[in-house]
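Aim 2 progress update. The chain analyzed this quarter is reproduced below.
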Amino acid sequence: MADEPERPPDRFVLAYGDGPEMAEVSNVEELDALLDRITGEARADQCPCGVHIRTEAEWDGPRMSLGIGRDFSYLTFMTWHVDGDLDPGKPTEWWCGNDRGEIPAHRGIPVQTAREAAREFVRTGDLPTNVAWADNEASP
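Predicted structure tokens:
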């Protein structure tokens, strides 16, 4: 009997904000509604943050992160990053929980591109295909 294709996960857990806060989504509509709410909060607080999305498999499964609350975003998938199209410059600051992190300016990408990658991840549970991923160690 042929192997059946692996089914995408049923639920995804998002971690964001102070604490961090945790929420679950099971489809793209729930993801968009939650990302819209988090974006509004981040902009109101003037505190851009990283949103970490993982499967219910805790940290054994695939996971990705995207930036929320700026006019641009970033994407990571485990140790992979997207080479962005912003000019190199000062790293940008993002918050997750009480931790501040910086993303190199050249990793910035359009918010809509990051959101579509998050939607694809929730639909498939796999590395999104709408961006060209670069291995972190091989990138500048």
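The longest strand covers residues 49-55. The chain has one domain: 12-133. These observations will guide the mutagenesis experiments scheduled for the next reporting period.
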